[in-house]
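User: Structure tokens for both sequences below?

Assistant:
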Amino acid sequence: MATLGETLSTVEYVGAVTREGGNTTEATTTSTTAVDLLSDTGMSISAPEPIFALASTRKTTGAADNINTGLVLNTTEVRLVSINSSFADAADEGHAVFIISARLTDYTGGGHGFFASDSRGAELFNINSNNMPTATITVGTIRGSVNNASITMGADEFHVYSLATS
């Protein structure tokens, strides 16, 4: 079994992950329809490159209801997921992760993600978008909404990475 140090050395040696961009300024919404929260326009992710994106999220008190987090690549919303943050009228925090495979013709439906929060643990979701862009990704955006305008949804620390193709 490899030690943590050996594992980290291997990851550093492979160099398979590239940070493409992100946005680390918090944005909030009380909108019950999806709005853009965090964007980065400085990316260049080709179609064969898998994508790994994540963002921290939070919900305020005000109602026992859900928040929704989505990912937009270029101008295509690839997934807006209703996140069962907490059943109670309570503040909650967590994160959303999106993992998207190569975006090639006839292979545009691939991806999964999960949301984890303090109150709910982890929940897996599929990204089954047949509208996944096959063009080079130059813009990544986190979207959000709330199911009840009495709560505020926040997003922060949005990061996008590409993975090596070989």
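Moving on to the next sequence.
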Amino acid sequence: MTGKILMRDGDSVLTYPELLERVNAAQSYYPALQTGSLVEFVSNLVVALARGGDVVLLDSDLSADEVAGLGISGRNEARKIEGAPFADIGAVLEAVKKSPSKISIFTSGTTGLPKKVEHTVASLAAHVRVSENYSGHVWGFCYSPTHMAGMQVLFQILFNRNAAVNLFRKSKQAVYESIDKYGITHISATPTFYRLVLPEKAAHPSVRRITLGGEKSDKALYGALLEVFPSAKINNIYASTEGGTLLASGGEYFKIPDGEEGRIIVDENNELLVHKSLLGESDSFILDGDFYRTGDLVEWIGEGKREFRFLGRKSSLVNVGGYKVNLEEVEDALRSMPEVADALAFGQKNSVLGNILCADIKLKEGAQADVARIRNFLADKLQPFKIPRKIRFVVSMESTATGKIKRL
């Protein structure tokens, strides 16, 4: 196999010349392809978009009943297409950029029923940067390709003709072996992904850019990442299936971009709202006037309300004995404990208190801690009603299809 590599997925490899051959040879494509092969997914997607065909993105692990429940018919059924051959891969990618195709994505957060949102290449790739300076990037692909973040990274890779290595749901050992073997320079992933591959004793200097998104992150995680990736700069992004990438930051604090002050706002209850003009298309959107309520809570930093940080989701607030407890605040406190690798806080229904606060805790490799030690640690960081009454030690945390920690 010759030519510049586009994607490595285990033993499967797709090159740019091979992608050109597949596009020109294709007489059909799958509008609703369900596959566990990233190479097949990318090939089918590029064929569809280059020829103007609409696509519905389906997670590979959805059952037939779940697909039917989403209102999708024709799973893995081919549809004929036609068109003149493309002269080169540049012409293919230019057709993808200008594609009129509708791309249907289903939300898949930590809780709630999936909702279909329609995007185009233009809306998904609005923040993709293309430059000769980016031509040598090698990406660790750490998202499901069927969701917003995966699509945005994929377009960044394609439009700069970069190489990528699939790291999604790979073991910690496999992740670091791939980083070193293939000289990965860029990684974009959820904080949950990064926590799963930490701690790590060795440094991996080939990585020059780390991007976090999809969940609230914190300074402790940034520090741990810089120890493992000493050559990297860190970016933090705020994006959603509904609106794509909306905010970017070099750390924990965000600012509303110049020119967007009237379209991205914070209401009196500190919830972030996004104007409908920034959204994709969906029948499921419920607007408050012209604005969509994101469900994300923020806190202004300093005077003048110019910078803010994310506190968590409105859905992460639980009633414990008449007090509102932010589960993500509890998790941040737990993760700041030296022995803790990751934590999940949740409420357990109780007829007297409303909820009993509980926590699942994953300890770092070789670390030891008991319930008394954890509660004593939290006593200096949280009010008494925010300290979990039930604590369980677990060996792993379940994640969603988008790579986020799965809430109970």
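User: Anything stand out in the second?

Assistant: The longest helix spans residues 38-50.
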